[in-house]
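User: Just a sanity check before I run the rest of the batch. Below are the structure tokens for the first item. I only need the designed sequence back.
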């Protein structure tokens, strides 16, 4: 469901040759990274909006990445799913784009809101609600919504971007952040500045209730309709008792069915402020021109008080927790261990541990449980579930092969974990994994998109995008002893939550 850097076209191939596919301890590699770090240019507008620019003039295109420091974790009780909902709204146009008659549309939208509020007020009476009145209010709401829809020029925002040569228009909502991106020809830079600033300065939450139905259907087709989705949600809600990571991203159905356009507006006013956003541009752009256009267009995005931080701390887990689901589906094993956030000094050690244990064909779990014992169809390990801004989970996931049982796979996983905790890892094993991680790190920066994304992430997470170039130093200093130490600290029975999806046994009832 993340880094930043600025690279000249002649530098990246050199980096690949001098050692990013092998050990990265050479002086040449270090000096090249220092040079790249110096090529990232940064400025901040008076409203607090930060920009990072990396000029790459090898093709007449550029990619941008707008990152807003808000995600599912920031939603208050009763409003889960709003971060994702607003991502949908950001493609619906603005006060000047997306409607045939904006004034008439606003009046129709107001009537729609009033009609929904009336229905919701009656609905909240529960068993005391009048069924006939509810039916009448629902009909009135649908009629008002249809009337407002008559003024909408559907998909005008993405169509306009495509008309100007834009490609790759998309967005995502994560537990920690929300991102928006696409690419354009370099001679459309001012068009981009006008359009991108307008959608965050003057958004119109048109077709709100129609799009909310789309999100509800998205939830139904995903987490509600698939056994794996249900297992993940159940396991997450058990692993986290207090922290909002337990709620995920898509939102609870009851919240989706009851939050209003006004709720979304308040969410926007709180989080979509200039000082809570970062924009990274990479490609055939000129820094001085970007800065000039940014001041001209993006200065109109309002700033505000810093959004609230999630102060809830997940209590230390005192006993193993288990979730057992019985369904006629492929059996699955999920094992989750609590670990600190990405800001913790041991974060990169956890990443290496996950790679050694369960990433790739030569990982320990794959070699022992998949290749040798053929107990699983797929197995892996990762960190950062469901996010990494706050303390999160070290995850192990396995799809059980035919002829084997989840408990059998679970026990085999523990045996490999115990062996790692007891015997540690070899220097050769660590070096191999470290080299692979470093290679992947550089590959992710080859494209303008990857570079812009990583720059925006590091600026948001650490306040300085150039910290991207220090990442490899963190991996280089980790020893086999560090791996063994964190493994012994994390892999404790009382620190784990286990999710099991199994087929019903004959004679058993769910």
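Assistant: Here's the designed sequence for the first item:
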């Amino acid at each position: 469901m993340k880094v930043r850097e600025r690279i000249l076209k002649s530098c990246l191939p050199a980096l690949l040759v001098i050692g990013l596919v092998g050990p990265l301890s050479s002086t040449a590699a270090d000096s090249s990274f220092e040079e790249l770090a110096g090529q990232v240019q940064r400025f901040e507008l008076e409203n607090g909006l930060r920009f990072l620019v990396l000029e790459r003039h090898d093709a007449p295109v550029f990619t941008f990445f707008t990152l807003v420091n808000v995600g599912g974790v920031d939603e208050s009780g009763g409003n889960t799913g709003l971060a994702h909902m607003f991502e949908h709204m950001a493609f619906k146009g603005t006060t000047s784009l997306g409607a045939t008659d904006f004034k008439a549309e606003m009046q129709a939208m107001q009537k729609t809101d009033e009609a929904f509020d009336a229905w919701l007020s009656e609905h909240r009476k529960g068993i005391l609600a009048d069924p006939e009145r509810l039916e009448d209010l629902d009909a009135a709401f649908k009629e008002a919504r249809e009337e407002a829809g008559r003024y909408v020029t559907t998909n005008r925002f993405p169509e306009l971007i495509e008309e100007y040569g834009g490609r790759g228009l998309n967005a995502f909502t994560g537990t920690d952040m929300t991102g928006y991106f696409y690419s354009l020809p370099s001679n459309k830079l001012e068009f981009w500045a006008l359009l991108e600033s307008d959608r965050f300065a003057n958004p119109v939450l048109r077709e709100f209730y129609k799009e909310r139905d789309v999100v509800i259907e998205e939830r139904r087709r995903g987490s509600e309709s698939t056994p794996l989705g249900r297992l993940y949600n159940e396991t997450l809600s058990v692993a986290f008792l207090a922290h909002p990571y337990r709620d995920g991203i898509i939102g609870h159905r009851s919240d989706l069915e009851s939050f209003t356009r006004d709720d979304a507006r308040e969410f926007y006013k709180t989080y979509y402020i200039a000082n809570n956003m970062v924009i990274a541009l990479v490609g055939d752009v000129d820094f001085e021109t970007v800065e000039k256009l940014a001041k001209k267009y993006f200065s109109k995005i309002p700033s505000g008080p810093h959004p609230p931080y999630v102060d809830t701390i997940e209590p230390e887990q005192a006993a193993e927790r288990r979730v057992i689901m019985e369904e006629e589906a492929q059996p699955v094993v999920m094992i989750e261990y609590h670990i600190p956030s990405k800001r913790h000094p041991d974060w990169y050690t956890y990443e290496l541990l996950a790679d050694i244990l369960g990433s790739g064909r030569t990982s320990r779990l794959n070699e022992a449980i998949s290749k040798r014992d053929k107990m699983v169809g797929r197995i892996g390990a990762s960190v950062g579930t469901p996010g990494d801004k706050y303390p999160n989970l070290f995850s192990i996931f396995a799809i059980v092969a035919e002829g084997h049982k989840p408990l059998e796979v679970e026990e085999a996983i523990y045996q490999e974990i115990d062996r790692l905790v007891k015997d540690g890892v070899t220097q050769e094993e660590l070096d191999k994994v470290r080299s692979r991680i470093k290679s992947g790190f550089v590959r992710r920066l080859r494209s303008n998109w990857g570079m812009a994304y990583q720059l925006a992430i590091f600026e948001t997470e650490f306040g300085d995008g150039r910290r991207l170039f220090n990442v490899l130093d963190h991996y280089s200093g980790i020893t086999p002893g560090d791996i063994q130490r964190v493994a012994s600290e994390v892999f404790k029975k009382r620190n784990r939550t286990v999710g099991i999806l199994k087929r019903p046994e004959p004679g058993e009832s769910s």
